[in-house]
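Re: that backbone. Tokens:
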């Protein structure tokens, strides 16, 4: 990609990118750094994109949470961490996480665990539960939610029976 592009050209490219999908300032700054734009110009473009409503961190956080929860099956901890890595304000993160109800989280985790259980080889129920817990925690679900699902669904190793 061409480096050292003008401010107008960068604004045009980034506004088109934002029109196609939600992005955060962090994502756009990565593009501008790759184009070797000075920090002052980056800030100017970010401000202009925000003023023109191409860039909206709150809208981005809500879309991110919805998409990653529904399609990637991520839990709240993972979503929170990913948004923090993108420098999204903590209040915006917490507001966006309210998009997902506790029932939706439990139902999603239940399906995920059921699916994963079929692919796990374990010698005992203890080993199976340990593997399922680690898997669910890696997806960002809280231990209390995981234990609720595992205990209520009475997860057992089918090979033992």
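Recovered sequence:
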């Amino acid at each position: 990609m061409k480096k050292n592009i003008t401010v107008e050209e960068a604004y045009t490219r980034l506004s088109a990118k934002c029109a196609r999908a939600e992005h955060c300032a962090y994502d756009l700054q990565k593009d501008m750094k790759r184009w070797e734009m000075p920090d002052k110009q980056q800030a100017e473009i970010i401000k202009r994109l925000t003023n023109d409503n191409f860039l909206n961190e709150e809208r981005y956080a809500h879309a991110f949470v919805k998409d990653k929860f529904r399609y990637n099956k991520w839990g709240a901890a993972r979503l929170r961490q990913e948004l923090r890595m993108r420098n999204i304000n903590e209040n915006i993160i917490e507001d966006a996480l309210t998009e997902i109800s506790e029932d939706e989280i439990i139902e999603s985790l239940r399906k995920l665990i059921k699916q994963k259980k079929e692919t796990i080889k374990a010698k005992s129920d203890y080993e199976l539960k340990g593997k399922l817990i680690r898997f669910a925690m890696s997806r960002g679900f809280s231990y209390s939610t995981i234990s609720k699902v595992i205990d209520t669904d009475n997860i057992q190793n089918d090979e033992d029976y």
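Residues 102-160 form one domain. The two ends are 59 Å apart (CA to CA).
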